[in-house]
Amino acid sequence: MNNCQQLQERRNTISQLFAAPVRLLAPMEGLTDPLMRQILTQIATDLGRPYDWSVSEFIRITQHVLPAHVFYKYVPELRHDAKTSSGTPIHLQLLGSDAQLMAENAAYAAELGAPAIDINFGCPAKTVNSHRGGSVLLDEPETMYQIISAVRGAVPDHIPVSAKIRLGYTDTSRMDDIRGAIASSGADWLTIHARTKTQGYKPPAYWDKIQNFNSLSIPVIANGEIWNVEQAQNCMAQAETKHLMLGRGAVTRPDLVAQVDNHTGNSANSLENTATLSWQDLIAHQIKFLEGAAKNDIVLVGRYKQWLGMLTKGFSEAQALWEEIKREKNKTVIINALQASVR
Fold this sequence. Notes:
This protein is an alpha/beta fold. The chain is built from 14 helices and 9 strands.
């Protein structure tokens, strides 16, 4: 296949990907790891509204091309056609500030089977920003352009390259420059978390400011502070895009993606969360999480408690279970308490 054919294949792929409203599971460091991706994408698929794709936690690029085992550690789905067991595609996300190194790693990731490369310009973590990674680069639009264009030039033409950003670093004063960098870079689509780095995860999200990027000739995906159907609808209306990436809200209510697309009414009552997934339905998935083979019991229990703490915002039963097991370290005891929580 020559370059022109590959380019046309990519254009066709993107046209197909965005023909209908896309719903994505967000990359969240320390949260949507491979095990969590497997669970959440399975639930969405079982409910009849699978995620169009998910994005991996970022892989940090610093000094060299990473060996294959590092890519497989973060994205084990690469061994299975880059899909979860439920068939949801996983796009691979890179984070770094050296354009050449990012390009070389992206090219290797593509060789390993990554179906698309996403570039992280949104991470607000101090340890990441202090090493010129993530959202700090929003103050360096020229560097953003260099990274995206280098990655675009390094991977085969048929593989999409996307970027994820926030509205700015300390403020939104560089939005025009950021938009210009994205426009010139060759990015195939853009995901925007509707807050600056300084605003962190504190409500509200400023969905209306996403409109500033809608003049780009590429799809724009909105993200940030979407916990229920009403917020999803408000986000799409204010951002003027039909495409959404769901983050913490999708972990708190694993059926959120189905709720958003099952909603058809216009009355105030119809905006309430639909009981798509009951607590009883969710128990088997929680047990599967606790029995995850990729981690030891201590890690699994800690990660499960993190998830259960988030589930308390979406399920009343989770709060009672949390009070019962929050100091428990024995996985078997936790599974027994989980099973008893519906009796």
